[in-house]
């Protein structure tokens, strides 16, 4: 059976952060409690207002075995302390489900981690394509000063498991360093914060 063309063809409008036929879900600072290491900086920023950190627009589509789903992600520029604005991050509920990210604008990257100690930060900018293997938790980070926009394409039956990574958190953080954005162990960033706090 032939699907009608309006279900087959979509258009991305980067200015309005939409895809035709998609509803958009906004994530604000208050939705990201526990995601940033510097709790004092998080509370202080939230005190100034509940800013939008990112949105994801996902068109309705077929969601059976073999189908694909896709979402337009837009992460706003900004920082909590030295840590750049980010998405919550998740494993797929169907752990083996992989995903492809295609960069559409801005500068940032993906933090990728698995249960076996693998942890890396892979750049994502316009025209970059990042393959996120199965069984890998993934989070997007905007290290630039304009919105980071990308398309994520994944099996429609993948599902999102946020709790699997939220319990212990990502081991890698992406922070503004003296020479620009740098990925570092979360434990080291936390230690630096505690040292700074001790000097106050
Ligand atoms: C993406 C993400 C998007 C938002 O479409 O859903 O970047 O991140 P969170 O889902 O972690 O809030 C994707 O990876 N889908 O599977
Ligand atoms: Zn995903």
Strand order of the largest sheet: 3-4-5-14-9-12
Secondary-structure element pattern, one letter each:
HEEEHEEEEEEEEEEEEHEEH
- Unreliable spans are none
What is the CATH domain class? Mainly Beta
Report the helical percentage. 10-25%
Determine Rg (CA atoms, Å): 17 Å
Chemical compounds bound to the protein? 5-phospho-D-arabinohydroxamic acid, zinc ion
Q: What is the CATH homology-level superfamily? A: Jelly Rolls
Shape: globular
Mean pLDDT: 95
* CATH level 3 topology: Jelly Rolls
Integer tally of domains: 1
Which CATH architecture would you pick?
Answer: Sandwich
Q: How much beta, percentage-wise?
A: 35-45%
Count of extended strands: 17
- In terms of structural class, how would the helical and strand content be classed? alpha+beta
Helix count? 4
The biggest beta sheet reads: 6 strands, antiparallel
Describe this structure in words.
Helices cover 16% and strands 43% of the residues. The protein has helices at residues 5-8, 39-47, 163-166, 186-199; strands spanning 12-13, 18-19, 22-28, 52-59, 68-75, 79-80, 83-84, 91-92, 99-105, 107-113, 119-125, 129-132, 137-142, 148-155, 160-161, 172-177, 180-185. By secondary structure, the protein is an alpha+beta fold. The chain is built from 4 helices and 17 strands. Residues 90, 92, 99, 138, 152, 154 line the site of zinc ion. Zinc ion binds at residues 90, 92, 99, 138, 152, 154.
């Amino acid at each position: 059976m032939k699907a009608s063309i309006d279900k087959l063809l979509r258009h991305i409008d980067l200015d309005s952060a939409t895809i035709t036929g998609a509803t958009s879900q906004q994530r604000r600072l208050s939705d990201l409690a526990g995601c940033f290491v510097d709790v004092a900086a998080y509370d202080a920023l939230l005190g100034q207002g509940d800013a939008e950190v990112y949105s994801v627009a996902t068109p309705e589509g077929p969601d059976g075995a073999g189908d694909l789903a896709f979402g337009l992600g837009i992460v706003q520029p900004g920082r909590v302390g030295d840590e750049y604005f980010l998405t919550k991050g998740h494993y797929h509920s169907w752990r083996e489900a992989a995903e492809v990210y295609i960069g559409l604008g801005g500068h940032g990257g993906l933090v990728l981690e698995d249960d076996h100690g693998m942890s890396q930060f892979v750049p994502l900018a316009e025209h970059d394509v990042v393959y996120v293997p199965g069984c890998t938790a993934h989070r997007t980070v905007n290290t630039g000063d304009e919105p980071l926009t990308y398309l994520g394409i994944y099996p429609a039956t993948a599902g999102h498991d946020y709790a699997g990574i939220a319990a212990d958190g990502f081991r890698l953080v992406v922070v503004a360093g003296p020479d620009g954005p740098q990925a570092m162990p979360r434990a080291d960033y936390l230690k630096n914060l505690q040292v700074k706090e001790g000097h106050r």
